[in-house]
Amino acid sequence: MLKYQRTTAGDALTNLMLDLFRLNSLLLIAGDRMVAQLGLTSARWQILGAIVHAERPQPVAWLARDLGANRQNVQRIVNDLHSEGLVAFEANPHHRRAQLVILTDKGRRTFEAAMALQAPWVNSLSEGLAVKDLQTVHRVITALRKKLESIDEAEERA
Fold this sequence. Notes:
Low-confidence stretches: none
Mean pLDDT: 94
Number of helices: 6
Radius of gyration: 19 Å
Structural class: mainly alpha
Strand content: 5-15%
């Protein structure tokens, strides 16, 4: 068996990452089940959320960047959302070909219905967990994300 030389922190982070992979899978499954009745999946819901939380309408490439996702995958899902009348495209004054993605009224109602389902679920899931602990985990994950993003940016410049 191969033996890798990790630090204690490296071992702890590896264990955290493995648990995060498992947690992500479970969250996607739970999200898919929660919003299936609305005709959504976790991925569609996530993209609707990115559109809702953007300060202004954005093209697909920017939505993908904000989500840390592949642009082609986001484009495919946005096209599906468009065909179902949940999003629309509008002209982008800064780029002729990169249209802006906006929610339709139906898309906004669907997103709000998903959030109404999520609130009691997440409240129940958070029972017994200390807010301070959740905030610490959030800070650690944010710090790791920023480190990885800076590595990606440095590699893109090289």
